[in-house]
Write a structure and sequence with these properties.
Layout (H helix, E strand, L loop, with lengths): L2 E2 L5 H10 L5 H11 L14 H10 E2 L4 E7 L5 E6 L7 E9 L2 E5 L3 E2 L17 E2 L2 H15 L5 E4 L9 H12 L11 E5 L3 H10 L4 E5 L5 H7 L2 H4 L2 H15 L3 E7 L7 H11 L4 E7 L13 H13 L3 E4 L23
Parallel strand pairs: 1-2, 6-9, 9-10, 10-11, 11-12, 12-13, 13-14
Antiparallel strand pairs: 3-4, 4-5, 5-6, 7-8
Helix pairs in contact: 1-2, 4-5, 6-9, 10-11
Bound molecules: S-adenosyl-L-homocysteine (SAH).
Amino acid sequence: MKKNIKSFDLEDLKEEMKLIGEKPFRAEQIFKWLFQDKVMSFDEMTNLSLELRQKLNENYSIGNFKIVKMLESVDGTKKYLFDVQDEEGNLIETVLMEYHHGYSVCVSSQIGCKMGCKFCASTGIPFSRGLEAGEIVEQIVAIEQDQGIKVSNIVYMGVGEPLDNFENVMKSIEIINNPKGLNIGARHISISTSGIVPKIYELADKKLQCTLSISLHASNNAKRSAMMPVNDAYPIEKLMEACKYYIEKTNKRISFEYALAKDNNDNLDDAKELVKLLSGMLAHVNLIPINHIEDGKFTKSTNENIIRFRDYLNDHGITATIRRELGSDIEAACGQLRRKNIKAQ
Ligand code: SAH
């Protein structure tokens, strides 16, 4: 298999150029062709010599995806099904959303997911592998190309656990953030995790300016473990310690995701417990009316309960907002993405 040229960050690509006997500045030229001009072949990189273009063709793939399907929601949200063009014919899903402040892409970080959250559609499909950095950034490149747009926000909230594919995700952030790459500011990138505690410490030490979202969903261990098996390995106390360390290191507010399910985690006692847990922290709570998935036992809270929950938090010093639902009619809303188990032919 040839190496995917989109998987190198700029520094690595400079090293790679040296290895094939080229000057490091070639890496910058290639980077620009890949991520700003978004060409689909090495032959279009016209400021490189024919000899170099040939060398690139021989040694690297350019990592283009094939669009298998694109579904459009009534609210304008678009869901892409990509063929990643690997030997197994793997397919992945990516979502494009339009907000008043610009376009946002929700990327997948793995093919399948190991975390097993009980309310999520990505569960139950066998885990295959982590995506390469090039396969993460290609989701954005392919959508910008297809739509003729510039994307301004990236969320790592598609299929997979980003902190379980740490190195590749970090590399993809470097490419997305690099002014010579996709040039999207770190403040416009969010990483969401189910709570892999050691990796939260590692991320904190990198002091990135990205937003960290923690999928909390419950305010005590019994309820959280029933929803998220990861809580058995990293219970709430350990998770909160890691979050405090993250805030201390980065000085950044953490966004806590809380999917409200009827008669499960949406009553006032839950809200009270959540206030206790987050009081005094630099935190924001994002309430998501849980999306019902096939075979799932969790159903959406009533609007009344959702508003009551939000108001309780706000009245007790915790800022909370209700996330707007986008793309639910095309199964593109939170937790609805899944690796399609049909493989490409
Ligand atoms: N593995 C990462 C990122 C993927 S999930 C994580 O767990 O954070 C992205 C977000 O969607 C998470 O907050 C997740 O808990 C939430 N989610 C999953 N299933 C959902 C559902 N059925 N309804 C609402 N949100 C859901």
